């Protein structure tokens, strides 16, 4: 692993070289504590916000002293600022309050700015950080502490129906880019004091806030500590989406399988919290992360729980089957048509053979052409401007479906295989998971082309061996299946009715193993004696 | 060490198979040796020996790396 | 989450490993064919008889806790002698892995990929074995939990499907024991008792890593009996389908029997699919022997066993090729020489030799423990 | 990590370097559906293969050309001939979907063990193809006679014989593996299906044959070919074949049983079970064949009242008497005419009296031909279709 080490080492020295320059870049980071001299503070702040058109600073009177108030009008709500701060400040009765020390300053805040979120800061850069997050900073002459008051109200996308993981029945709210909205969406669903939120800031330059939500009485302390540790350990300059965080806190980066679940649905997040998992909310991302995650989570949709457990279980089995189809169907097609003709029933064989007459490519090439065509179409469909998205499907249907067959480039059966595979790919509720199947599919096709069924099985063996070696925050990735935990089977392949599903998953090692010990199967009220029904 | 183990196991397991063959075919030792190690013609020989050589190379590399690690550890002390 | 340094396998995993190990190549090549229509009886008898040696292995391992066979040998015989013995054992383990690998290669090349060189099959398969052992014994355990249901399920399903295809003629197993127990015992000893049952000696390398050592012995014996029954069942199905003569004649009787399945003109030629199920058993068998050998190398050469994996995997692939020129040689070695020259000393000779030493040493250990 | 990379790259490299040894695209191979083996004029065998022409089977692509092509070669070994077929055919032949093996009469009389070993050993052939003997006709012609519904002749024959076996029991369920098992058993001789062509073989060889309502030539099944070891020694007709199958593993059949003078009842036999009890009566082997079967009355020409238990009893008795004598006649015919045990009585003896059988197994056929056979048929007439009394009864 020498070469890798070298690269890492050189990276380090590179960081050290740049560190000085970088300090200057991120302003006020090493700024001195607040000076008692108002002028000095003022000039420091002004220097920090040089060339910022949205920055406002005004001289005010706080009690009997001089002061300044500063804020970013892009991050604050002007009516809030006026009502909550400017009006009390202009109130003439406050003009003769003395603010000699911190206690009086605090009393002053209580009287005039009550009901507004606030912090007291010792250093200038803390204050500046708050201003950057939409607070109004108030500094009073001669006071060692600066006050920041929350008047932020940033325009966010309203709560909409999530664009992924849609349901027919179930809540239609989705997370938004706003951390506060997201927290409230969760809090609304779990109105319980043991629901905890802990915030930390990640990203040297972006200073993105990341919140960990968990249920205190349920979540395993060791796993929680590990989650926190990993988020704290993130060393990066920028976080824009929970996807960035996910990559930093995964157990292993060399895998195509997502080790952390992401969802846009607050009900899914809340349900997972109650199972004993942690939810990681990243400011600015409508996708929250759920950790730890096991393989079977990716086959569970919230809707499973909102409809009859028979249907829920059936659909779930369909999902497992379609994962296998998405993964192996094309490779089975290659293996059967190019290697093991004996396995195809005679009539089907002749039908396939007739279709393949005159097709110029070997089955693998034929398949790869169509697979890649499909991937291109898919990508185009996603990236295209919405308005012309429609054309894609028409072009796709024409290209894949008819033209290729009529031109004799591919056989009919292959189109069916590709179409079924494509459909099966979209069945899993989580897009990042199907990406794994999409990628691995090509390896399967390749091995099937070389070794036939033996190749496919070898690939499956490799994949399963890889899967069982994975862990998510210390929890084995294939948890209730391997290692096999009999008690946890009630919510893996089948969804058992709620009255039969009394325990939280064993593999999460929760503090409260039972979730609804008293639930009973519904039954009609006992009929009276002699009622004889 | 890995290389030594590799060579040792290779030689002794070949020896074992040769001993069994000697008994089975009633041949002398060298005849059996010759007979066992001449493989069928064609690509197969190259595949087998390539595999063996990659094994040998891997054991060289592993040995080298482990000795380096050890010396690094000593330096650290 | 600190990684556990000592790898543990759960009792379920141990159970599955033992049974998959016993199915391994035994279910492919077909065992006890010499007892003709009574081979299923022979298997049951051999299974029951081999409880004794297996119990003996467990006893040896449990006597000195948390030490595997090689470490026990080191305690019992001292460094020098034990090193020689361990090297012999390593050779034995590797040789058997190579034989099993050859069985598998012959199966694939003979029935499925006719033109593919057997060498490529050997090498690719060993690459996989190397990968899974590199990930660790624990991973092997969990891996088998996923595949075991398919293995057992399909072995059982073969009989049921044959029944539905009207190919299961139970009268083929008659007459039962026409010439007394003699021919059965001839098959049991030495063939069945050494292959597959005696090969459980390799589990002396695994047992100390079971998570609940106290129950490990019971689990192993239970697994032995269950898999003995399933092997007997499979043998019974083969006889009922093919008749004893055809079973004896067939290279891979299970596959031949499965080939008879024909349902609704659709479920046909299932034997190719059975190969894959069987592949899992082979994998477990090779892995466990290979692991045993690697652990030995770790002890002798004082390097972590992962370092040896790739080179040794290549040696085993190489061995599986040069082990025999042709199939006839492979089989006749397997019948006439391997049980006597190789199996018996390693499965029975050395463990028996170990017995008095272990008793003596473990007494010493215990009294030491009391002093503290 | 590094080891893993090494492993994966070497695996991929191995795949890339080596190429694909076993790939054969579907349009690179031709599937043989039937093989006919007969006596060659210049050499030991003449082998004919029937190869499917898949595109003519496809509804969309069919141009009305022939769905199956045949080609013949002569030589001394089947294996070599099959691999040499590209003398006349374009593609590599695959035998995994072969459904029929037609053996010419002369070859069958000479002995067929020589090529059966190849068929069992090669592993290319599926085990479920039908063994057939071409009676009084060239085996190659069998593969050349078309049929409008199932266009490939060999598949047609396969279907025909298995349906006949299932519906009426007129064909033995004799697969290659069963044939070999019977051949290798000391207590049984193999049999095979016999078939012939009605009409002119030349006419059958053209697709035009399919265009007639009454085909000029048609393949028909004519009963059973009896083998002694691997040599053909004679035939049984269709009735006798059914009786033979009844002693083995009959699924269902239909009987016409006299119930009065010139009057008959039609009886469907279902759920038949047969068992053989072997015994030695001093030096004579003695077999009791016990058959238990359910029967359904399909139709009657008699006036008996079908609502009475006595009628059922009478009919049961009639059926039993008739079938017992029928089966016994067949067995006796085989005993006297062919002197080979095709029924597997020897196997029953081996199972039930192992030691006695061991003593006589080398001359079992002699023992068989002097054996006493006793047939007991137990019929349970369950119901008589959808009507109760026949309108014939009301006439009275």
Automatic annotation (TrEMBL), chain A:
The chain crosses the membrane at residues 317-339, 388-405, 411-431, 443-468. Residues 509-533 are annotated as: Disordered. It is found in: Cell membrane; Membrane. InterPro entries: Spore_Ger, UPF0353/GerABKA_families. Keywords: Membrane, Transmembrane, Transmembrane helix. One of its GO terms (cellular component) is plasma membrane. GO terms for biological process: spore germination. It is a multi-pass membrane protein. The keyword Nucleotide-binding does not apply. The keyword Hydrolase does not apply. Belongs to the GerABKA family. This is Spore germination protein. It comes from Halobacillus litoralis.
Automatic annotation (TrEMBL), chain B:
The chain crosses the membrane at residues 46-64. The keyword Transmembrane applies. Keywords: Membrane, Transmembrane, Transmembrane helix. This is Uncharacterized protein.
Automatic annotation (TrEMBL), chain C:
Keywords: Germination, Membrane, Transmembrane, Transmembrane helix, Transport. It is a multi-pass membrane protein. One of its GO terms (biological process) is spore germination. GO terms for cellular component: membrane. The chain crosses the membrane at residues 12-33, 39-60, 80-98, 118-137, 149-168, 188-209, 221-243, 272-293, 305-328, 340-360. The keyword Transport applies. Pfam families: Spore_permease. Its main location: membrane. It is found in: Membrane. Belongs to the amino acid-polyamine-organocation (APC) superfamily. Spore germination protein (SGP) (TC 2.A.3.9) family. This is Endospore germination permease. It comes from Halobacillus litoralis.
Automatic annotation (TrEMBL), chain D:
Keywords: Germination, Lipoprotein, Membrane, Palmitate, Signal. GO terms for biological process: spore germination. It is found in: Membrane. Residues 223-385 form the Spore germination GerAC-like C-terminal domain. Residues 22-196 form the Spore germination protein N-terminal domain. Coiled coil: none annotated. Gene3D superfamilies: Nutrient germinant receptor protein C, domain 3 (3.30.300.210). NCBIfam families: spore_ger_x_C. This is Ger(X)C family spore germination protein. It comes from Halobacillus litoralis.
């Amino acid at each position: 692993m020498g070469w890798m080490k070298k690269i890492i080492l050189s990276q380090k020295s590179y960081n050290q070289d740049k560190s000085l320059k970088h300090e200057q870049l991120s302003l006020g980071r090493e700024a001195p504590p607040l000076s008692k001299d108002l002028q000095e503070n003022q000039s420091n702040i002004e220097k920090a916000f040089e060339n910022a058109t949205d920055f406002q600073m005004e001289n005010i009177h706080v009690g009997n002293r001089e002061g300044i108030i500063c804020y970013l009008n892009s991050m604050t709500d002007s009516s809030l600022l006026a009502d909550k701060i400017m009006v009390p400040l202009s109130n003439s009765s406050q003009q003769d309050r003395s603010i000699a020390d911190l206690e009086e300053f605090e009393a002053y805040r209580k009287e005039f700015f009550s009901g507004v979120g606030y912090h007291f800061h010792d250093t200038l850069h803390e204050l500046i950080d708050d201003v950057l997050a939409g607070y109004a900073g108030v500094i009073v002459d001669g006071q060692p502490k600066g006050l920041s008051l929350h008047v932020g109200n940033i325009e966010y996308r309203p709560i909409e129906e999530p664009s992924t993981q849609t349901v027919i029945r179930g809540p239609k709210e989705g997370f938004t880019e706003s951390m506060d909205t997201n927290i409230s969406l969760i809090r609304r669903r779990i109105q319980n004091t043991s629901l905890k939120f802990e915030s930390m800031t990640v990203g040297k330059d972006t200073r993105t806030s990341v919140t960990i939500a968990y249920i205190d009485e349920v979540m395993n302390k060791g796993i929680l500590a590990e989650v926190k540790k990993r988020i704290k350990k993130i060393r990066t300059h920028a976080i824009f989406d929970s996807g960035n965080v996910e990559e930093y806190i995964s157990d292993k980066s060399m895998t195509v399988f997502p080790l952390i679940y992401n969802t846009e649905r607050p009900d899914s997040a809340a349900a997972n919290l109650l199972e004993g998992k942690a939810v990681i909310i990243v400011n600015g991302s409508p996708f929250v992360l759920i950790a730890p995650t096991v393989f079977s989570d990716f086959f569970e949709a919230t809707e499973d729980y909102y409809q009859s457990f028979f249907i829920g279980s059936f659909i779930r089995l369909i999902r497992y089957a379609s994962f296998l189809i998405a993964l192996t169907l094309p490779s089975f097609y290659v293996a059967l048509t190019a290697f093991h003709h004996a396995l195809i029933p005679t009539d089907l064989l002749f039908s396939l053979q007739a279709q393949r007459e005159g097709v110029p490519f070997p089955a693998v090439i034929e398949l790869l052409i169509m697979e890649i065509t499909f991937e291109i179409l898919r990508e185009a469909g996603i990236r295209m401007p919405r308005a012309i998205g429609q054309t894609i499907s028409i072009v796709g249907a024409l290209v894949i479906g008819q033209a290729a067959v009529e031109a004799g480039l591919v056989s009919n059966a292959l189109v069916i295989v590709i179409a079924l595979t494509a459909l099966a790919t979209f069945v899993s509720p989580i897009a990042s998971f199907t990406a794994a199947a999409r990628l691995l599919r090509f390896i399967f096709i390749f091995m099937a082309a070389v070794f036939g069924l033996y190749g496919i099985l070898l690939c499956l063996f490799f994949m399963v061996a890889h899967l069982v070696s994975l862990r998510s925050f210390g929890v084995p990735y294939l948890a209730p299946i391997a290692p096999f935990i009999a008690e946890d089977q009630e919510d893996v392949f089948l969804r058992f009715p709620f009255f039969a599903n009394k325990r939280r998953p064993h593999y999460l090692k929760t503090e409260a193993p039972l979730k609804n010990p008293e639930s009973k199967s519904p039954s009609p009220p006992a009929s009276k004696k002699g009622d004889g029904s | 060490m890995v290389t030594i183990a590799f060579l040792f196991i290779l030689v002794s397991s070949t020896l074992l198979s040769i001993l069994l063959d000697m008994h089975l075919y009633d041949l002398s030792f060298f005849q059996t040796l010759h007979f066992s190690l001449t493989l069928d013609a064609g690509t197969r020989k190259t595949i087998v020996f390539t595999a063996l050589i990659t094994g040998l190379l891997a054991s060289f590399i592993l040995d080298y790396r482990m000795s380096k690690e050890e010396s690094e550890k000593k330096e650290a002390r | 989450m600190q990684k556990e340094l000592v790898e543990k396998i759960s009792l379920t995993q141990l159970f599955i490993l033992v049974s998959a190990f016993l199915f391994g190549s035994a279910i492919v090549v077909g065992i006890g064919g010499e007892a003709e229509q009574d081979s299923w009886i022979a298997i049951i008898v051999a299974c029951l008889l081999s409880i004794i040696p297996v119990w003996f292995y467990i006893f040896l391992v449990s006597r000195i806790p948390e030490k595997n066979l090689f470490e026990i040998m080191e305690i019992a015989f001292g460094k020098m002698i034990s090193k020689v013995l361990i090297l012999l054992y390593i050779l034995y383990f590797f040789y058997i892995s190579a034989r099993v690998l050859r069985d598998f290669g012959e199966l694939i090349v003979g029935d499925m990929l006719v033109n593919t060189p057997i060498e490529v099959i050997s090498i690719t398969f060993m690459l996989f074995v190397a990968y899974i052992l590199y990930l660790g014994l624990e991973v092997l355990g969990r891996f088998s939990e996923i595949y075991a249901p398919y293995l057992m399920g399909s072995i059982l399903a073969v009989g049921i499907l044959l029944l539905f295809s009207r190919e299961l003629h139970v009268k083929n197993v008659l007459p039962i024991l026409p010439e007394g127990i003699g021919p059965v015992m001839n098959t049991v000893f030495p063939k069945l008792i050494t292959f597959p049952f005696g090969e459980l000696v390799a589990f002396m390398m695994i047992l100390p890593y079971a998570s609940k050592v106290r129950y490990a012995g019971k689990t192993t014996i239970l697994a032995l009996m269950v898999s003995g029954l399933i092997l007997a069942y499979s043998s019974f199905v083969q006889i009922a389908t093919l008749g004893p003569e055809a079973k004896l004649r067939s290279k891979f009787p299970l596959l031949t029997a499965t080939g008879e399945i024909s349902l609704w003109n659709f479920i046909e030629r299932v034997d190719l699919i059975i190969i894959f199920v069987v592949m899992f058993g082979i994998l477990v068998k090779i892995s466990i022997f290979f692991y045993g050998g690697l652990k030995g190398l770790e002890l002798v050469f004082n390097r972590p066993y992962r370092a040896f994996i790739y080179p040794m995997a290549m040696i085993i692939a190489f061995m599986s090729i040069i082990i025999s020129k042709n199939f006839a040689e492979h089989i006749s070695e397997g019948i006439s020489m391997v049980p006597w020259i190789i199996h018996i000393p390693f499965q029975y000779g050395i463990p028996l030799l170990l017995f008095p030493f272990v008793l003596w040493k473990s007494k010493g250990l215990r009294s030491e423990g009391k002093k503290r | 990590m590094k080891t893993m990379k090494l492993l994966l790259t070497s695996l991929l490299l191995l795949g890339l370097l080596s190429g694909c040894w076993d790939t054969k695209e579907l349009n690179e191979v031709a599937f043989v559906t039937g093989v006919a083996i007969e006596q060659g004029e210049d050499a030991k065998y003449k082998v004919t293969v029937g190869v499917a022409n898949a595109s003519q089977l496809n509804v969309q692509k069919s141009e009305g050309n022939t769905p199956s092509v045949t080609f013949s070669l002569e030589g001394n070994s089947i294996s070599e001939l099959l691999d040499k077929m590209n003398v006349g055919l374009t593609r590599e032949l695959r035998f995994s979907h072969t459904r029929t093996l037609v053996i010419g009469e002369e070859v069958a009389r000479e002995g067929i063990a020589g090529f059966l070993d190849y068929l069992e050993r090669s592993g290319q052939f599926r085990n479920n193809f039908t063994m057939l003997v071409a009676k009084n006709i060239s085996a190659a012609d069998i593969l050349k006679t078309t049929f409008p519904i199932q266009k490939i002749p060999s598949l047609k024959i396969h279907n025909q014989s298995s349906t006949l076996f299932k519906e009426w029991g007129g064909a033995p369920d004799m697969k290659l593996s069963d044939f070999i098992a019977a051949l290798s058993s000391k207590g049984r001789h193999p049999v095979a299906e016999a078939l012939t062509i009605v009409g002119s073989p030349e006419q059958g060889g053209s697709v035009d044959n399919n265009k007639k309502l009454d085909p000029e030539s048609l393949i028909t099944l004519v009963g059973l070919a009896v083998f002694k070891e691997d040599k053909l020694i004679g035939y049984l007709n269709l009735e006798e074949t059914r009786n033979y199958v009844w002693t083995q593993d009959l699924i269902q059949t239909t009987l016409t049983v006299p119930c009065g003078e010139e009057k008959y009842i039609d009886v469907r036999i279902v759920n038949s079970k047969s068992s053989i009890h072997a015994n030695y009566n001093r030096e004579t082997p003695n077999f009791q064949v016990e058959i238990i079967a359910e029967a359904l009355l399909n139709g009657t020409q008699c006036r008996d009242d079908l609502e009475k238990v006595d009628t059922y009893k009478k009919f049961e008795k009639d059926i039993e008497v008739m079938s017992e004598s029928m089966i016994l006649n067949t067995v006796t015919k085989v005993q006297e005419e062919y002197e080979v045990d095709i029924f597997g009585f020897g196997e029953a003896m081996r199972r039930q009296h192992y030691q006695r059988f061991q003593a006589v197994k080398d001359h079992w056929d002699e023992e068989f031909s002097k054996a006493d056979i006793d047939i007991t048929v137990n019929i349970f007439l369950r119901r008589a279709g959808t009507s109760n009394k026949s309108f014939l009864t009301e006439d009275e």
